[in-house]
UniProtKB/TrEMBL annotation:
<feature type="domain" description="Cyclic nucleotide-binding">
    <location>
        <begin position="33"/>
        <end position="119"/>
    </location>
</feature>
<dbReference type="InterPro" id="IPR000595">
    <property type="entry name" value="cNMP-bd_dom"/>
</dbReference>
<dbReference type="InterPro" id="IPR014710">
    <property type="entry name" value="RmlC-like_jellyroll"/>
</dbReference>
<dbReference type="Pfam" id="PF00027">
    <property type="entry name" value="cNMP_binding"/>
</dbReference>
<protein>
    <submittedName>
        <fullName>Crp/Fnr family transcriptional regulator</fullName>
    </submittedName>
</protein>
<dbReference type="InterPro" id="IPR018490">
    <property type="entry name" value="cNMP-bd_dom_sf"/>
</dbReference>
């Protein structure tokens, strides 16, 4: 477990250095969790008590429309953070599912513990601000890509920016993420 916790420390310290004492305190607020393939971290209509940092594995965040069609907002793999952030931050019911595509391992933290760490340790407040900003930028780029890029351009961008992801995700899920049919995806 210590080795896995050290991965989290390395991740945090890419943006915010912590003393050993600070790290001991910070790490005490995280819980290790393992989920099996197809197990949900977050389900629509349920409370979202945690944000998850992915140690190992792959997840998808998605919603389902009235016709039962899945719309994938995000894939998350090692070193990513994932949750339904509106529900997590505002303590309301989830509007997204987060499901494991592979057996996965996480460190989770509650919103209360996260806010406590941010109040008490300046480096954690800085880390949280930077990660939130980077997440917002990534989401903005994804939305803009869907507005102004063709499906083929979106696919090529995904191939160049996240080649490892394309190898791990079934084509049906990639098609949903890109907003195209599986048949269209097979033509690229």
């Amino acid at each position: 477990m210590e080795e896995k916790l050290n991965l989290l420390r390395i991740h945090i310290e890419k943006m915010a250095k912590l003393t050993d004492d600070e790290w001991a305190y910070v790490s005490s607020h995280f819980k290790y969790r393992a989920f099996k393939k197809h197990q949900y971290l977050v389900q629509i209509g349920q409370p979202v008590p945690s944000e998850f940092w992915i140690v190992k594995g792959l997840v998808k965040s998605f919603a389902v429309d009235s016709d039962g069609k899945e719309h994938i907002l995000q894939f998350g793999m090692e070193d990513y953070w994932v949750s339904d952030y509106n529900a997590y931050q505002n303590k309301v019911s989830a509007t997204l599912h987060v499901d494991c595509i592979e057996n996965s391992e996480f460190f989770s933290i509650s919103i209360d513990d996260k806010e406590k760490l941010c109040r008490e340790i300046k480096a954690m407040a800085n880390f949280s601000r930077l990660k939130t900003t980077h997440g917002f930028i990534a989401l903005q780029q994804r939305v803009m890509s869907h507005l102004i890029s063709s499906a083929e351009e979106r696919y090529n961008s995904l191939l160049s920016n996240q080649p490892g992801l394309v190898q791990r995700v079934p084509k049906k899920l990639l098609a949903s993420y890109l907003g195209v049919s599986r048949e269209t995806l097979s033509r690229f």
